[in-house]
Amino acid sequence: MDSDASMKTHISRTMSSCFGILCQIRSIRRSVSQQTLQSLVVSLVLTNLDFGNVTLAGVATNQLDGLQYVMNAAARLVCSAWKCDHITPLLQDLHWLRVPQRIEFKLAVLAFRCTRTAPCGRHGFSTATSFCFDAQAEHSTNALCHRW
Fold it and tell me: Which domain holds residue 76?
């Protein structure tokens, strides 16, 4: 994490890595089917975008624009669209969420899993569940602090 806790370094490295992968995929796009192309983009680019994106919760949306730019480029590559084409219909056709929505979805899934984990262990909760409750409480506290 950056010294100013803005996650700029993480975002720029993720963008650089994803664009490198997209360039490699672009070079073989005429040699593979559309389905294979989409599988490559999802498995190599979107998973890279999603890795650790929960840590980006609460980050200003203007900092997430770079990651959204990567996702837009990936959608255009998969759909063989021009840069001037609108991106929203492409994302809808691919059933991809925008970056801020992906982060919210991942947090919601994490919270759901934390509340639905079966009790076990010495204190009645698994280690994963207690970790989730701690993370959820910390996120709630941070969200309240950012609102004020």
Answer: 8-97
